[in-house]
Amino acid sequence: QVQLVESGGGSVRAGGSTRLSCTASGNIFGVHKMAWYRQTPGNERELVASITTDGTTQYSDSVKGRFTISRNNFRNAVYLQMNNLDSEDTGTYYCYGNLQAYAGSGLSPVTDYWGRGTQVTVSS
């Protein structure tokens, strides 16, 4: 069974930094796009940053120049380095992976998977 498990986050002072990690595990054949999303109470989940297998990245305008997404394809892992944090960055951060798993004697369809989320709280 495929799982995405996040780590990192917690409480951070404004202007500080933190790093999120996420590892996909299970009978994985291949991981395509990976990303981080953020959700705050009463709002929809929004894309923070994404990265493709070849390292092409995309960022929301609010985090450009402050956050860096990276990945380790051998470990099926994705990371989010978050610098110069401010209160607007507070939220629950979810790891996303678009991947394909082994299923019986073949492969599953390419499917979207989500982690359970990790909280980042930025205080002034």
Walk me through the structure.
With 124 residues, the protein is mostly beta strands. It contains no helices and twelve strands. It has strands spanning 3-8, 10-13, 18-25, 28-39, 46-51, 57-59, 67-72, 77-82, 91-103, 106-107, 111-114, 118-123. Strands 2, 4, 5, 6, 9, 10, 11 and 12 form an eight-stranded mixed sheet that branches. β9 (91-103) and β10 (106-107) form a beta hairpin.
List keywords for this structure.
124 residues, mainly beta, eight-stranded mixed β-sheet, four-stranded antiparallel β-sheet, 0% helix, elongated
Quick rundown:
The chain is mostly beta strands.
- Coarse structural class: mainly beta
Helix amount: under 10%
Give the termini separation.
Answer: 41 Å
Q: Could you tell me the strand content as a percent range?
A: over 45%
**Major sheet attributes:** 8 strands, mixed
Number of helices: 0
Count every beta strand, where a strand is a DSSP E run of 2 or more residues.
12
| Tertiary shape | elongated
Q: What do the pLDDT scores average to?
A: 97
Topology order in helix (H) and strand (E) letters: EEEEEEEEEEEE
Radius of gyration over alpha carbons?
15 Å
List unreliable stretches of 5+ residues. none
Topology of this protein?
Blueprint: E1 3-8, E2 10-13, E3 18-25, E4 28-39, E5 46-51, E6 57-59, E7 67-72, E8 77-82, E9 91-103, E10 106-107, E11 111-114, E12 118-123
Parallel strand pairs: 2-12
Antiparallel strand pairs: 1-3, 3-8, 4-5, 4-9, 5-6, 7-8, 9-10, 9-11, 9-12
